[in-house]
Amino acid sequence: MSKSNTKRVVDITWNYYDSVPPNRLQVKCKFCSHTCWCGIARMKQHHAGTKKDFIPCCSVPDEMKEIFVNMLKGKEKK
């Protein structure tokens, strides 16, 4: 299978953020409208509410928070 035929896996975290034009790396949380300059790791920390390197989201549902906590735990194991 050639590389051109493989699909790129998109992280679900991007579904909960909007890009703030014209800056590609500035994003806005869809739950609390917090705007920041960050990458995918900090977005996950924001939704998980870890308070590690980032402020927690006050509006994310508990079910979603658990998903992001588990995603971060999986990353730590690797």
Give an overview in words.
The protein has one domain (about 10-75). Helix content is about 30%, strand content about 20%. It has a 3-stranded antiparallel beta sheet, with no helix packed on it. It has about 80 residues and is α+β, with helices and mostly antiparallel strands.
C-alpha end-to-end distance: 26 Å
H/E series, N to C? EEEHH
Radius of gyration: 14 Å
* Beta strand count: 3
Query: Quick check: average pLDDT?
Result: 83
Strand content: 15-25%
**Principal-axes shape call:** globular
Low-confidence stretches: none
Derived from helix and strand composition plus strand pairing, the structural class reads alpha+beta
Estimate nothing, just give the exact number of structural domains. 1
Strand order of the largest sheet: 1-2-3
How many helices does DSSP assign? 2
Task: Kindly state the percentage of residues in helix.
Answer: 25-40%
Describe the largest sheet.
Answer: 3 strands, antiparallel
